[in-house]
Amino acid sequence: MLTSDISDKNAEQVHIRRNFLKGKLKIQEVNGVQLPKDEFTAKLKKILFKSDCEKPKFRQIIAKNIRDEKNRLINTLKVLDPHTRHEEYEALFLFWLGIEIDNNARKQTLLREKTIEENLQSRLKKDSTKPLIEQSLIVLNRKIETLENKKNDFGINNRYKEEIHELNLIKSDINRLSTALSRLEFRKELILESKTDLAKDKADIDMKQVKAIYSEAKALIPKLQKTFEETLEFHNRMIDERIKYVTKELPSVEADISELKRKMAEKLTAEKAISHSLKKKEFVEDINILVKELNEAYEQKGRYEELNSIWESTEKKLSEINNELENINEGIGSKEGLIKERIESFNNYFSEISNKLYGELFVLSEAKNDKGYELNISSVSGNLGTGKKKGQIAAFDLAYIQFAEANNIECLHFILHDQIENVHDNQISNLLTEIVSNVNCQYILPVLKDKLPDDIDVEKYKVLSLSQSEKLFRI
């Protein structure tokens, strides 16, 4: 259960029920209502953060509140999966500052589409450039015009002309279909390459050997909670989700490829029939040479026209993507004054807490590049040592709650920090006795009793005590 005020029994409450079963046995309820997977977190986001926007996701928003994974324990700001894109962090950072952008999900989609089109252009550039294609078409049209004039001078009968014209059209269609087929097969190749690259990320480890190592580790570190298999399963499940997203276009691409091959087969059959008919007619050798040369010119023209069409299509699409991205970025940029104002407000609390902990002023600042905004942390003294990372994280999370309250930003008023024993005794004492007491939050620390400073009255802060004989859930 979550409550807006732990000291008030009548305060607004959110009741959450979950288990770890699957299928019909799975429980996933919010306030007594069973919800599907996607709706569950969306409902929590709506209730807890008063937000309907698609991005950032609920789990991304709360990542800094529950720091129990390696990435969150060593990074103050970059608390998501190591493969998270810059634009996803922009949405998260702005949300933390109380600035919600409705079209940030659209921005992320556009940036993925932009990457695909840029990859396509890179592949096209290996074969030719657009200016070269345009000039080649000018030269080919001039050549075709000359050859057509020569053909007319021979006085070929109308039926022969019709068959020649039909053959030229068919060859042009074949070239167009061939180029379109190449483009689709290239897109399929990109999808499969991405799938292969992601699949390589899946761990392939000798399970027996790792189990033995984990057994030894568990004997030395009873606190070790997750097995290697669970960690591996979670990692591979995330990879499978990414593969699913990357390959969702594959069935439609393969269907289009199949349809193009069918049309290609029809055109090749027609080409063969007309070519056979033309060979039966008795014309002088010069005409045959002329027709052959003209056909080759039309084939080259068809190929270059299709390449030019692809260039124009991808340039148009990139232009549309860039224009839409520019509009979105302008909308985000219009919030620049508010962004600076919110960061200045946050630093009032951040620098004060860091000064109490280390006698240093930690500072949050924004940076802007071609992909959008990001946040950075530094010290006014310029000496942000690695030994102070845990204290920096604590200062940031506690300062955020004070900042959110001051600016009427919805947030969770609890923080869970693992491995706090890595912080120096003086800083732990300051955190528990001076700083946390001035912040409206629950500060949860799982820690070994002998790792706490001697001057800490453990009984005053203890909520749950576990031991070898008194284990969680008695397991």
What does this structure look like?
By secondary structure, the protein is mainly alpha-helical. It folds into 2 domains: 54-98 and 336-474, Rossmann fold (3-Layer(aba) Sandwich), CATH 3.40.50; 109-333, no CATH class. It has 15 helices and 10 strands. The chain has helices at 37-49, 58-61, 70-74, 86-96, 104-127, 130-153, 158-200, 207-220, 228-246, 250-280, 285-333, 336-358, 389-406, 425-435, 458-461, and strands spanning 2-3, 13-14, 16-18, 28-30, 33-34, 66-67, 362-369, 372-379, 414-417, 442-444. A hairpin with a 2-residue loop joins β4 (28-30) and β5 (33-34). α7 runs antiparallel to α9 and α7 (158-200) runs antiparallel to α10 (250-280). The protein starts with a strand and ends in a 14-residue tail after the last helix. The model has no long low-confidence stretch (mean pLDDT 80).
